[in-house]
Sequence to fold (192 residues):
Amino acid sequence: MLDEPLAIGADEDNHQVTAVISHIVRPGREQGYEEWFRGIAADARTFKGHLGVSAIRPRDHAHPEYVVILKFDHYNNLKTWLESEVRQEWIERLQPLIEKPEAIQTLTGLETWFSLPNQPLKSPPRYKMALVTWLGVFVTLAVLSRLLSPILSGLPILLNQSITTGLVVLVLTYLVMPRLTKLFKKWLYPTH
Fold:
């Protein structure tokens, strides 16, 4: 069951949604947690709308927090997984491995590009997200346009644009935005 309600409007419930789940693993139980993660990830993949799952592992034993990033195509599909009996059985198996109950946050928009491990998942101000996103789109589009122009120039304009923008979104999501977020971390998330 979701610990916090997801604040989305009816018109937004058809967008991709990301759940960020953190677990504080008990010292010495890391191997058991890794086995648990492989098992629950395999079961999650069988659910409708599953788009991927990954884990950010702790760098040292002083901070034993694992962060699981789970993506679904729609909020309702994510909710079905989170509230499923299959997942509840996995959560019961998890209890001896963790120090406190899991924390779940859900993200539905551009803020997923700006999430950092071991950071509170509060989004940066919108103007900062807009500027970094603009920089990412500008650079990615400039490079991809130059590379793809000879290949796609003979295609109809809408097909050309469709392929180009699809590749831009993929490159932004998986390559550019994570690096820009790290590069501008101090500006996006100033310490108080």
